[in-house]
Specification:
The protein is an all-beta fold. It folds into 2 domains: about 140 residues, Immunoglobulin-like; about 140 residues, Immunoglobulin-like (Sandwich). It starts with a strand and ends with a strand. A hairpin with a 3-residue loop joins strand 19 and strand 20. Bound molecules: 2-acetamido-2-deoxy-beta-D-glucopyranose (3 copies). The site of one 2-acetamido-2-deoxy-beta-D-glucopyranose has 3 residues, from strand 6. The site of one 2-acetamido-2-deoxy-beta-D-glucopyranose has 7 residues, from strand 5 and strand 10.
């Protein structure tokens, strides 16, 4: 006997916003009929936090604040009563409104290193004790509706002015020791970014005493787990894009252009138990491997 169970969502992109109806069909394909003791559909969503190993020593102090945070937990009986599924393909339509638990917010789906926010549908077909229960999971994605106040407490939210920068050995945090004499000028279009639009700007190597091998744009996530009792803050690289390669010509503008990768970014999120923030580094690598970095905290918004 072979039975396959599938959950097919109506939306091909599987993206939903709070208050949307998540609809689709359960598809049961079996080569012979079988008895069941009830079919349920569970919609779940949670934030999972993890402390990096280097912070494990301090974890006991705030263990409670790194427990998973459940955002959504709804179970529906597709059929409560025991019954029989006939041989062949059976389609069972379903519709579940996407609503958070009381006092919770459905944050956007996000796949990070120390913080994950994920949503899924699970179908369980219970069977009598001699047969194995059947289970199938299907992930879906949550996105804020553009314009909904996603994170009201964000600083800089209205700062849409271009940000100019000038980099030279004398304004490096490291004091520029070992760096050749150089001057890099540029601007970012904004540091408060529409997550569905590319990150843009421009830079120019005005002068440089040594050959530059590469100019890179690095997108970094800064994840904080914990709360007032203690916290762990970790910055890790999401992606690194080379915007200038080889012996970079002087006084020729170089475009800064980067698309925010889906799932690995989300609107900047600051809550009492965790934070997800983003930064951009502009990295200049000289021929002799000497490397200088300039860091820009950015804010991502869904608008
Ligand atoms: C998040 O998911 C990734 C990939 O599935 C996994 O490597 C990571 O450990 C998860 N982190 C948490 C905090 O669950
Ligand atoms: C989700 O809700 C069900 C009952 O509807 C409950 O049995 C289960 O423990 C809940 N899950 C969590 C993680 O709270
Ligand atoms: C953000 O970007 C999306 C996609 O390009 C666009 O539809 C939307 O209008 C933008 N929002 C604002 C406020 O510019």
């Amino acid at each position: 006997m072979s039975i396959t169970l599938d959950i097919k969502l109506k939306r091909a992109d599987k993206i939903y916003s709070e208050a949307d109806i998540v609809s689709g069909i359960l598809v049961i394909d079996t080569n012979s009929d079988f008895k069941h003791d009830g079919i349920t559909l569970t919609m779940e969503g949670s934030v999972n936090l993890q402390i990096s190993s280097k912070n494990v020593g301090i974890i006991e102090a705030f263990y409670n604040s790194v427990k998973p945070i459940q955002l959504l937990n709804v179970t529906c009986d597709v059929t409560q009563a025991p019954g029989r599924i006939p041989a062949g393909v059976t389609n069972i339509p379903f519709e579940i409104p996407l609503k958070p638990k009381p006092n919770r917010v459905l944050y956007e789906t996000y796949h990070g290193v120390y913080v994950n926010i994920s949503y899924s549908l699970r179908c369980d077909i219970k069977r009598s004790f001699l047969s194995k229960d059947l289970q199938k999971c299907q992930q879906f994605f949550v996105q804020y509706k553009p314009g909904s106040a996603s994170c009201p407490q964000l600083p800089l939210k209205d700062n849409r002015k271009p940000v100019s920068f000038e980099l030279s050995p004398k304004n490096l945090a490291s004091g520029g020791s070992g760096a050749p004499d150089f001057l890099l000028r540029g601007h970012l279009d904004t540091v408060c970014c529409n997550i569905s639009k590319p990150f843009k700007g421009q830079l120019t190597l005005v002068r440089c005493a040594a050959p530059v091998r590469s100019i890179e744009l690095q997108l970094v996530r800064v994840e904080t787990c914990g709360c007032a009792e203690g916290y762990a803050r970790e910055a890790t690289e999401i992606q690194n894009i080379q915007i200038g390669d080889g012996d970079i010509a002087q006084n020729i503008p170089i475009l800064i252009y980067m698309v925010f990768p889906r799932l690995f970014t989300c609107p900047t999120l600051i809550t009492t138990n965790f934070k997800i923030e983003f930064e951009v580094n502009i990295v200049v690598v000289f021929e002799d491997d000497h490397l200088i970095t300039n860091n820009f905290p950015i804010i991502l918004v869904r608008e």
